[in-house]
Design a protein that fits this description.
This protein is mostly beta strands and 365 residues long. The chain has a domain of 160 residues: Leucine-rich repeat, LRR (right-handed beta-alpha superhelix). The chain has one helix and 15 strands, in the order βαββββββββββββββ. The chain has a 15-stranded parallel beta sheet with strand order 1-2-3-4-5-6-7-8-9-10-11-12-13-14-15, with no helix packed on it.
Length: 365
């Protein structure tokens, strides 16, 4: 199908025309669908010329529009009623100051897999999007975060770009941002401005996994609850990295790094001992259970598998002073432990005996 058929059904609210060969959009085929709220035109042959007659102008109740997998190089004219817009896997080269004009009701915007970069996005491009909550720009060519991000934004996803730096200016107005996803980029701790996170008063979840960090970044957002740093090259957790966080970090993913016991200072985890519920340290270079472990009061999940651990001390995991035990899952498989030498009460605090995984050990079946 290369054209939209003429449909007269004023009661229709959804139209799915995905995966056709539609190249032309005219006003007439859509004129009988005035109550349409969802339109899927993904995976067609639509380009900029397809929207030259402003074919969607009569769809004043349209809320969801999917334009994924077409050949658009710019954002077409769209009805102001839109709340969700998907333009993934197109050829968007620029976002101009007027490209989102009139879309003041837009809540969700997806622009994944396009050739966008910071130089092609005007600082005024997002200004009309006064209510935008979720923005996805994964798989583009950004080296820096674009300027002019909407103040209303609660979730920003920019994984699989080429981001090397996070500046204070880029996130200055994002006081409502709750989730920031920057995994699969080229970030190092030196690329994070000292004040980059300070204005993020609402940020709770930060994903920096699959980057190039060698140390846990400092000056983390104060209200941070979940931090993902797996698949970096981290060999050091600086002292007091988390002490300023309130109410405190609840989940920390440090799997697949280069951490040794020497890379953790005595006060590296200060500020998290009452808040931490999940600590993932698997696939590192640890030779013994970190001494900080027994200080956590509310830890539920502990991953230490796939290290070089040879020793579990008597009170290395469970300490008798920690009343009201919450620990439910401990993984220590694929280490160098001699199981018969583990102290008998080493894991007495586990709330579920089935949550302890010790087999197999390296060199043993």
């Amino acid at each position: 199908m290369t054209h939209l058929p003429i449909i007269h059904n004023p009661e229709a609210t959804k139209l799915d025309m995905a995966e056709n060969n539609i190249r032309v959009l005219a006003l007439q085929p859509l004129s009988g669908l005035l109550n349409l709220d969802t339109l899927d035109l993904s995976k067609n042959k639509l380009d900029d010329e397809s929207f030259s007659q402003n074919p969607l102008s009569n769809l004043t109740f349209l809320k969801k529009l999917n334009l994924d997998g077409n050949q658009l190089t710019r954002i077409p004219a769209l009805p102001s009623s839109l709340e969700e817009l998907k333009v993934n896997s197109n050829m968007l080269g620029t976002l101009t100051p007027h490209c989102f004009k009139g879309l003041m009701n837009l809540l969700n915007l997806e622009l994944e897999e396009n050739p966008l970069h910071e130089g092609s996005v005007s600082p005024q491009a997002f200004r009309p999007l006064e209510r935008l909550l979720h923005l996805q720009m994964d798989n583009n060519r950004f080296r820096f975060l674009p300027l002019g991000l909407p103040r209303s934004l609660q979730e920003l996803k920019m994984n699989k770009n080429l981001i090397e730096e996070v500046t204070e200016e880029a996130l200055r107005g994002c006081i409502h941002l709750r989730v920031l996803d920057l995994r699969h980029n080229l970030l190092r701790e030196q690329g994070i401005s000292t004040q980059a996170w300070t204005r993020l008063k609402s940020l709770e979840a930060l994903d920096l996994s699959h980057n190039q960090f060698t140390s846990v970044p400092m000056n983390l957002p104060r209200r941070l609850l979940k931090l993902k740093l797996q698949h970096n090259n981290i060999n050091h957790i600086p002292a007091f990295s988390f002490r300023h966080l309130r109410p405190g970090l609840q989940s920390l993913h440090l799997s697949h790094n280069a951490l040794s016991n020497e890379g953790m200072e005595r006060v590296s985890f200060a500020g998290t001992f009452r808040s931490m519920g999940e600590l993932l340290l698997d696939n590192n270079r640890l030779e013994e259970v970190p001494r900080c472990v027994r200080q956590f009061k509310n830890l539920q999940v502990l991953r230490l598998d796939n290290n070089q651990i040879r020793l579990v001390r008597k009170w290395g995991v469970c300490h008798p002073r920690n009343s009201g035990f919450t620990l439910a899952s401990v993984h220590l498989e694929n280490n160098l432990l001699e199981l018969e030498r583990i102290p008998p009460n080493a894991f007495s605090c586990l709330t579920d005996a089935q949550g302890l995984v010790l087999y197999p050990q390296q060199g043993h079946s």
